[in-house]
Amino acid sequence: MTILTVQQLLLTDLAVELPMAVRQQRLVTSLRAHFGCGAVALLHLESSGEHLRPVAVDGLTSDALGRRFAVKEHPRLAAILQNQGVMRFHHDSGLPDPYDGLVVERPGEPLAVHDCMGAPLGVESRRWGVLTLDALTVGTFGSQARHELALLLPLVEAAIRVTRLEAELRAIRLSPPAGGSGGPARREDGEILGESEAVARLLHELQVVAASDLPVLLLGETGVGKELFAHRLHRLSRRAARPMIHVNCAALPESLAESELFGHVKGAFSGAVSDRPGRFETADGGTLFLDEVGELPLSIQAKLLRTLQNGEIQRLGADRPRKVDVRVIAATNRSLRDEVRDGAFRADLYHRLSVYPIPIPPLRERGRDVLLLAGRYLELNRARLGLRSLRLSPAAQQALLAYRWPGNVRELEHVISRAALKAVSRGADRSEIVTLDVDLLDLDSLAVPASGDDARGPDGSPSASSRSPAPSSAMPAQPPAADASLRASVERVQRQAIEQALAAHGGNWARAARTLDVDPSNLHKLARRLGLKHAAGH
Fold it and tell me: What pLDDT shows up at residue 492?
């Protein structure tokens, strides 16, 4: 492909409207074909100026798009950023290459003898990022290649500028009329990684609903990242300039929940030595995120409903209500429909909170997103452990794609971190490319029987039909069935312990809680979660 041909291709792409990902991918693919090199990457400098994030790559492994390269830890990328034009690194350069072990043509091989060149990219007189080209053959990037890349850089920057303008126009069409931060949906916040259709639909839905003040209920299994999506909703809303207050409802003791949410006045209770605003007042004008909302005690649910209906709160011990302007985002990993049916959650509050329910897809439904996320955690652990390079073997990649991920993104992070530590503990040379193979992932020991997924509700919590009946307290503890999952076995033992403690104390929950060494309110929550029906009224 001649220089004129690649220029014509880039100019043609500038003349048509293309999705951001498509335009950027066509750009790096055209450059790689023209220069005949092993890999091309387009990296965007995040607003903090500390990380470079790949937005399009050609010739690198699937997880490369999920990585974030800390500028201070990659001297080649730092040198390119500080340069004013095309920069070439000699094959015997002492600066480590950030893509060692990530080139697809020869994955896993040290790239000690190869050519590399790159150039900084600017948009509107500001540094936007860098373009890098890597070759596996010495001499690929001679003076002619450097000259041609310099000629192409204005077109590369023009493509970035056009893509940015198109994204801003789309954001204006979807963003709220005032105050919202808007922006393209594709990983613009540097937090949410995902190229799957499921994530694309979710991000679009968040963009649309953010413009309203409707309560939103985020539904999803443990570990899917509900808090990240709640923060995104807030950033895209007209309330973005105001605070977002996070409340972990599961960690609120029942005796303090009302004071924490609604505040109290001096003397309202022992220890109330001064007036104190609650979380609703702190979030006034902004967003209140009620995480694990299904754990709220019934007594607090009634007060929360009144606030959602009237926009008023009343501090504990106060005579007059106060007006607040708060948008509520709630999240749960439980089936609130089942909780309503069992009497553990108010039906009227459920309908008020779930004006706009949004299910967060589990990791097993996100396809190859698992490799993007793995790339993020690989780079984090590479830096944390001081490794030259950290990558997955092809077999390990396939194992990650095949695994069911009952713990979702959080579990993936732990699997990668544990595997990296194992590799180092087994003597991996930190100055060489460290490859994580299937045995280091240890996925077999984490596997959950398929029935564990089939017996879950739509939001990832155990459905009512899957809960085992509470055993009689007179029965001795039964050993778990050979095919029982770890969770089922733990829940069986918990039910037996609660039943036995209640029987020993004549059904007195407070005494049973002391015997079990748990907070009484937490014991009630646990009993409801385990399906002990008579706990619902407490």
Answer: 82
How far is residue 152's CA from residue 130's CA, in Å, rounded to a whole number? 14
Question: According to the 3-state scheme, what is the secondary structure of 426-471?
Answer: CCCCCCCEEEECHHHHCCHHHCCCHHHHHCECCCCCECHHHCCCCC
> In this structure, how many other beta carbons lie within 10 angstroms of the beta carbon of residue 40?
24
Which residue in the block uniquely carries the two structure tokens 């155990």?
462
**Other Cβ atoms closer than 10 A to 391:** 23
Whether 350 and 431 map to the same domain: the answer is no
Asked if 326 contacts 288 with a C-beta cutoff of 8 angstroms, the reply is yes
- Cα distance between residue 194 and residue 171, in whole Å: 19
**Within a domain: 451:** no
Sort 477 into a burial class: Cβ within 10 Å, 0-12 / 13-18 / 19+.
Answer: exposed
> Whole-model pTM?
0.75
Residue 64 is part of a domain; what is its CATH number? 3.30.450.40
Contact status, residue 114 vs residue 95, Cβ threshold 8 Å = no
Is residue 376 domain-shared with residue 348, that is, in the same domain? Answer: no
Helix (H, G, I), strand (E, B) or coil at 215: coil
Identify whether residues 336 and 368 lie together within a single domain.
no
In a domain, 456, yes or no: no
Q: How far apart are CA 289 and CA 245, in angstroms?
A: 6
Question: pLDDT band at 125, cuts 50/70/90?
Answer: confident
pLDDT in tens, 43-58: 999 988 999 999 999 9
pLDDT at 177: 47
* Closest by Cα among 187, 237, 165, 241 to 207: 237
> Looking at the structure, do residues 370 and 250 belong to the same domain, yes or no?
no
pLDDT computed for residue 530 by the predictor: 82
- Domain around 18: 3-172
384 to 45, 167, 373: CA distances (angstroms): 21, 34, 17
Residues 354 and 493 in one domain: no
Locus of tokens 């990684």: 193
End-of-domain residue from the set 416, 446, 476: 446
Pairing of strands 287-291, 244-248: parallel
Tokens 């003597």 map to which residue?
427
> Residue 179: inside a domain, yes or no?
no
